[in-house]
Each structure stands twice: as structure tokens, then as C-alpha cells.
Design brief:
The complex is a heterodimer.
Chain A (H helix, E strand, L loop, with lengths): L6 H11 L9 H12 L4 H11 L3 H10 L11 E6 L2 H5 L2 H12 L12 E6 L11 E3 L2 E3 L4 H16 L1
Parallel strand pairs in A: 1-2
Antiparallel strand pairs in A: 1-3, 3-4
Helix pairs in contact in A: 2-3, 3-4
Chain B lengths: L20 H6 L4 H9 L2 H10 L12 H6 L9 E7 L9 H7 L1 H15 L1 E8 L4 H16 L15 E6 L9 H8 L23 E5 H13 L1 H6 L9 E8 L5 E6 L4 H8 L9 E5 L38 H6 L8 E6 L4 H15 L5 H18 L7 H4 L4 H13 L7 H15 L1 H10 L20
Parallel strand pairs in B: 1-2, 1-4, 2-3, 5-8
Antiparallel strand pairs in B: 5-6, 7-8
Helix pairs in contact in B: 2-6, 3-6, 5-6, 5-7, 6-9, 13-14, 13-17, 14-16, 14-17, 16-17, 17-18
The chains are: A alpha+beta, B alpha/beta.
């Protein structure tokens, strides 16, 4: 099915374009709007964005592949990023990752057996003083222990079920 | 001990709802911006910033007043201000606190700076992961617009200033200012060849000043106190003021603290960081973000000559030298972002190196061959070093002490051969780690890294999973 941005979000595109002297500058913000609606950046999304911003699909594709937060494949409703850079690793990020892998039944890079969570490894998320931490969708969860982590995952799993 | 130290940037952090206009304004926000825009000439503001001796807080430590002085717009050119809020250097988490807890301080700094440099438009480039900070900034901007501080007539003056947030999407390299500008323009965040520098040809081809969040958030205090007085709050010459320090890793109270320029690393760890976690001995500290070469507490300053900039600290530990842009350069490291990563004696330094090099491999933008290939090659060699020797594992089989020299060789060939400083940021910490902990690298070359200190996760099978 061809991708079309909702009317509400499409109005935001015009507001975004007006913030910059060049139309192309709206590309990353508009890709964000699309990913929020579609979950990931599919070929259809790329085509739609290129058309809307008067760019070539190659220009859009080049940007999508440069930035790690744009998903180039479908992901679960909840995307869990585990920071594994030094400050977090010193404070037990490995244990956090392994716990999630065991709970989800997938390695980092995969999606949980119940399909609710995609688990990804992240490079430094600027929360070094609150290590270890994970990012789930837009939110940071910091100073974690395994008990808290399980509670947070439970909450997200329940939210998704509704 | 910290009670006597004056606070400026963090004075509003502890207030309930400190991020709202009502609370911020009740505690002094926008007072200085109003005075600056209504009653001060731009050149007077620039003069005060120059006198303040503020060194850029993003990591490079370039004097902000001098940077502003490079602007020379032609008649048909518009000047832009871009705020670098792409905080991504491992170990660094200070700018976030300003955006989350006192966004109005940043906006006030932007207003004054726009007036001082002749800009009418400002974009705040925030790393994409920090959605919470972006939301806080957007809410604060909406309040400031409604109050008439941002918009067509800030404080009633006929000097329109528009400020927008702009979200990144996950790329460390966008903290490099020209990579950031490309990203802002909707392109891949690949750094540009310089010259031209952004002050001549920056965002959208126009003269642009790119400054760090903390730098601009300090501007209201500089104007309020006067450059000279603000500079005097620091303990070092030509490097002024108070600044944010971060501390993470093996300390009791990791976090962000405000203190004068020129405290020592020992003070940062013992006084602000609360001392070592579980009272274990300090083994090493990466002083200001992962790109800054490591310090060892048992390494002494060697500066017997009287004209050496560190002569005063000759024979003292590296961690007793005041933290300043120039002092740390003389020490062979860098002050960077002033956010330290502290490590106790349980840590294996080869494994630390591997962790950091994985970061750089992941984040190299790939434009320049020495950086793209070099960062990956370093990880390959480190993977080999960390693996135990084994007759069946091809990685473990072939390693030797020459691999340590190979690391040094790769790093040396990355430096100076690329468009931006990312390659130096990768090679310098590696060279520092190998130089200061060579015995551990040699040991790894002989026998690998003990399982208990290894942090790789590639071969693990999952508990209770069919795979």
C-alpha cells in the first residue's frame, strides 16, 4: 500500500519547511514524522518524501542510511536501545543486555518472540552519569537494576496489549 | 566543601518546575537579555565575551570571543547562529541538564548572542535521541514567544529573532560543526573541507556561528557580571569562569557539577564524585570525553625546566594538574568536554580500548579512507588481542606482540590524513592507552584478556531459548 502522511502531520510539513531558507532542510524532520506514523522508513516512505520535498529518491535514501535512528526494516512497537559504551559498560550494561536477550529470546538486533520488542545496541546516549540505562522509544530509563528493568518492560508490554 | 563555590549555570536546577518561564523568570531569567537588547550595543557585548576568556565548552576549547570576531558578512548575507546540542562524546552528558532543567537560560543566551553577532535566526541542533530535551526546549520556546521575548519584537525592540529546534537522527559525527551544518541542511552529516570556515560560509552558504549549549548558556552570566569578573571566577589565566563538569564510571556520586575552571581531577573525583566506588583504587581516568588521552594517577608530571608551562606541578601526579584547556594540552591530553570517565583496578585497559574503538568504528562517517578503514582495522586487531590463543580459532592463533605495534602504526596513519578531526579523536586516545598501559597490551598479545574482564557478547547462547 502506498504511503501517505496523515493530513494532520502533512500540515506540520509546511510549518517545518517554513523554518529554513531551503526546502531540503526539512528532510530529517519530515522523515521523523513519517517514521512516527509508519514505524519504519520503507521504500514507499522514501518515494513519498522525495516527492513532497522535491528531492530525488537517491538523496532521501542517502540520508536515511546515514542515520542510525531511521529504521530501514520493520521494527516492533517498542524499540529498546541498550547503551553499551564505556561509562555504561563499567556500570553493568552487559548484564542489562544479556538479561533482555534472555527475556526476549533474541540477540541484540532481533525482535522478541512475542513480537512486542526490538532490541538494539546503542552507542553512547549521553546518560553516562546515570548508567546503566536503556532508551525505549522516546524515553530514557536510567540508573537501572534488573528488577526495575523488568518492571519497565512489563509496563511497556501491557501498554502494547491494550 | 562545595558550599563556598559560587554557582551560576546551575542556580535554578533545584527549583520546582525550573524549566517553566514563570519559575525561571522569578529567579532572574531574561533580565540580562532585556537589558542587553534594549541598552547595550552589540560591540560592547562582544567585548565583554572576549574579556571573559570563555573557551568553547563543546570540547575543542576555542576562545568564543575570537570565534565571533571571524564574522565579516557581506551586505547581501544573513548571519545565522547554530547551537550544537548534539552531545554524543562518550562520557559527556552535561548539556542535557541545561536543556532539561533550565532551557530558558539557553534561550536567553541565544537572544543576547543573536543581537551581539547580528543574527536573526537560530537553530538548536539536538541529537535525535534526546526527545525529552527537544520537548522541553520547544515548550520553553513557545512560552518565550508568547511572552514576546522570541519573535518579531523581542522586548519591544525592532530586531526580530526566530529560534527553532532541529532534531538529529543518531550520528556522533554531527557534533563536528560542519557535519552538523550538512545535517541541518538535510544532507548526510559528512564534515566539510575547511576553509571556508562556518564564519564565512556556514549554514545554507551564509556566515554562521556554531556554539555549544553550555557556551551560549553562559553568556547571560558573562554580561550580567561583566567579562572580567566572570573570568576571575576561574582559577586559570586565559580560561575563564565556572563550567559544568561531568563524572561517570567507578565513583560514588556520578553526575554533573558546576565548579570553577581549574579544579584538579583529584578534586573532581574525591569531592564532586564522592570518591571511588567501593573504595577501590583509581587505575585510570579519561578526562574529558572518550577522545581525550587517558591519565594515570601514578604518572608524575615531568617538567623540570622552569619555563615549562607545567613546571609548578613538576613531580606531582597527573591528576593534580588544574583542569584547563592549556594545562591539559601541555600534559599531552585534552580537556575536551570536562566529563571524566573514572576506572578502578578491576578494569582491563585493552578491553576499555576495544569498547571505545568499537564506538569510533560505528560512528566514522566513512568519507575518508584512513578513518573508515583505520577505525575498523583497529577493532579487528583489538578483537584478536582480546581473544585467548587457540589452535582452532583463526583469530587467536595468529596474534603476536607485533599486533600492539600494528595498533600504533594504524593510528599514526589515520592522523592528519582526513577531512575532520574524527581520525585524531580516534587515534589519540588509542595511542595514549597503548603508551600508558603497554604491559597490558603485551600481556593480551600473549594470552588474551581474562574471561572475567571481557565484555564481548557475540558468541553467547540465550537462556531458555530454542536458538
Amino acid at each position: 500500500m502506498a504511503f501517505v502522511l496523515s493530513a494532520d502531520r502533512d500540515r506540520q510539513v509546511d510549518e517545518i519547511i517554513a523554518r529554513y531558507p531551503e526546502r531540503r532542510a526539512a528532510l530529517i524532520p519530515v522523515l521523523w514524522l513519517c517514521q512516527r506514523q509508519n514505524g519504519w522508513i520503507s521504500e514507499d516512505v522514501i518515494g513519498w518524501v522525495a516527492n513532497r520535498l522535491e528531492l530525488s529518491t537517491a538523496q532521501v535514501q542517502g540520508v536515511v542510511t546515514f542515520y542510525t535512528m531511521f529504521h530501514q526494516h520493520p521494527v516492533a512497537k517498542n524499540v529498546v536501545w541498550v547503551c553499551r559504551t564505556l561509562s555504561c559498560d563499567l556500570r553493568g550494561a552487559k548484564v542489562i543486555q544479556e538479561h533482555l536477550e534472555d527475556r526476549f529470546g533474541c540477540h541484540a538486533g532481533g525482535t522478541s518472540q512475542d513480537g512486542k520488542f526490538t532490541l538494539l545496541k546503542a552507542e553512547c546516549l549521553a546518560a553516562c552519569g546515570q548508567a546503566p540505562m536503556v532508551q525505549i522509544n522516546d524515553d530514557y530509563f536510567e540508573n537501572l537494576d534488573l528488577e526495575q528493568l523488568d518492571r519497565i518492560i512489563d509496563e511497556h508490554a501491557a501498554k502494547e496489549a491494550r | 566543601m562545595t558550599e563556598n563555590i559560587e554557582k551560576l549555570l546551575t542556580t535554578r536546577y533545584g527549583l520546582a518546575d525550573s524549566w517553566t518561564l514563570e519559575v525561571a523568570e522569578k529567579h532572574g531569567a531574561y533580565k540580562t537579555a532585556r537589558r542587553a537588547l534594549v541598552a547595550m550595543q552589540p560591540d560592547k557585548i562582544r567585548e565583554e565575551v572576549k574579556k571573559s576568556n570563555i573557551r568553547g565548552r563543546g570540547g575543542a576549547g576555542f576562545p568564543t570571543g575570537m570565534k565571533w570576531g571571524f564574522l565579516a558578512p557581506k551586505d547581501d548575507e544573513e548571519v545565522y547562529l547554530v547551537i550544537n546540542a548534539d552531545e554524543s562524546e562518550p562520557g559527556t552528558f552535561k548539556d542535557r541538564t541545561i536543556m532539561d532543567l533550565d532551557p530558558h537560560r539557553l534561550i536567553e543566551g541565544i537572544l543576547i548572542t543573536c543581537w551581539a553577532i547580528g543574527a536573526h535566526k537560530c537553530w538548536i541542533y539536538v541529537r535525535g535521541e534526546l526527545q525529552f530535551s527537544i520537548d522541553r526546549l520547544d515548550a520553553a520556546l513557545a512560552e518565550a514567544r508568547k511572552a514576546g521575548y522570541v519573535g518579531d519584537r523581542p522586548f519591544g525592540m525592532a530586531y526580530p529573532i526566530e529560534i527553532f529546534t532541529h532534531s538529529g537522527a543518531g550520528a556522533y559525527i554531527c557534533g563536528e560543526e560542519t557535519g552538523l551544518l550538512n545535517s541541518l541542511e538535510g544532507k548526510r552529516g559528512e564534515p566539510r573541507l575547511k576553509p571556508p570556515f562556518p564564519a564565512n560560509k556556514g549554514a545554507f552558504g551564509m556566515p554562521t556561528i556554531v556554539n555549544n549549549v553550555e557556551t551560549i548558556a553562559s553568556v547571560p552570566d558573562i554580561i550580567e557580571l561583566g567579562g572580567e569578573k566572570w573570568s576571575g571566577l576561574g582559577r586559570l589565566p586565559r580560561d575563564g569562569g565556572l563550567r559544568l563538569y561531568g563524572i561517570s564510571g567507578h565513583v560514588k556520586t556520578p553526575g554533573v557539577y558546576e565548579a570553577p575552571v581549574g579544579i584538579t581531577m583529584r578534586e573532581l573525583i574525591d569531592v564532586y564524585g564522592g570518591g571511588m566506588l567501593n573504595d577501590r583504587p583509581l587505575k585510570a581516568v579519561i578526562p574529558g570525553g572518550s577522545s581525550t588521552p587517558v591519565l594515570r594517577p601514578d604518572r608524575l608530571v615531568d617538567a623540570p625546566k622552569e619555563d615549562h608551562p607545567l613546571h609548578e606541578w613538576h613531580g606531582k601526579s597527573e591528576i593534580d594538574v588544574p583542569m584547563g584547556v592549556d594545562t591539559y594540552r601541555a600534559l599531552g591530553t585534552m580537556l575536551g568536554t570536562c566529563c571524566a570517565i573514572v576506572m578502578d583496578d578491576s578494569v582491563n585497559m585493552v578491553e576499555v580500548t576495544r569498547n571505545l574503538m568499537r564506538f569510533y568504528k560505528h560512528e566514522s562517517c566513512g568519507q575518508c579512507t584512513p578513518c573508515r578503514e583505520g577505525s575498523g582495522w583497529l577493532v579487528d586487531v583489538l578483537d584478536t588481542l582480546c581473544t585467548e590463543p587457540s589452535p582452532t580459532d583463526p583469530r587467536g592463533k595468529i596474534k603476536s606482540e607485533q599486533d600492539v605495534e600494528l595498533l600504533v602504526d594504524i593510528a599514526n596513519n589515520m592522523m592528519g590524513n582526513t577531512i575532520c578531526a574524527f581520525a585524531e579523536g580516534t587515534a589519540m586516545p588509542l595511542l595514549g592507552l597503548v603508551q600508558k598501559f603497554r604491559d597490558e597490551f603485551i600481556e593480551a598479545a600473549r594470552g588474551g584478556v581474562p574471561e572475567s574482564t571481557r565484555h564481548d557478547d557475540t558468541t553467547r547462547s540465550l537462556v531458555g531459548s530454542p536458538s
